[in-house]
Amino acid sequence: MVIISNPTAVPNEIATIHSLFEEGMELFHVRKPNFSEEEMKVFVEGIGLDYRSKLVLHNHHHLATLLKINRIHFATNLREAVSNKDFEIVKDQGFRLSTSTHSITEFNALDSKFDYSFLSPVFESISKENYVPKTNLFEDIKNRTNFNTKLIALGGIEFSNIQKTLESGFDDVALLGTIWNRTQPIKNFILCQQIVLSY
Questions:
Q1: Contacts of 143 by beta carbon, 8 Å cutoff, 6+ apart
Q2: Nearest to 149 by CA among 195, 87, 191, 197
Q3: What predicted TM-score, i.e. pTM, was given to this entire model?
């Protein structure tokens, strides 16, 4: 199960991140699109060194080595602007890559250099207003042909729909609004994690 940061700063954020790791969080995506380079450095440096190998950097990729991060994420528009040769160079440097997609056709076309990709939105988003599925992704993924890249469901994922999501063919789920837009983020994480681990 993947957790994505709130795009803007939230109270007690670093303490919450540490608590999530202590409860077993596997990967934490640092997605702060409006952070400056300095703000990003300060934010990541606040997270314990023991957890750096579990962080995924969404922007300011050039800081990854300095911050001891070996995972970087390419949003759709950035992925489309980068050549396969450049991806090969990044992989050869030891980085693990992930990306985002918004249709099964887009996902199926991904190069195997990507370890996993988000596919969203599966349900109406908790964190983004008016961000709703354009098609039934549970039907769409029956046409999945890419099994080299792990398929992770994103968008409206919460305790009540995780089992259905995994049963439909997704390999894993990602949480954002369930953690940051609800009370008791740690409790919500534990409940969701129990479903994933029992599946």
A1: 104, 108
A2: 87
A3: 0.93
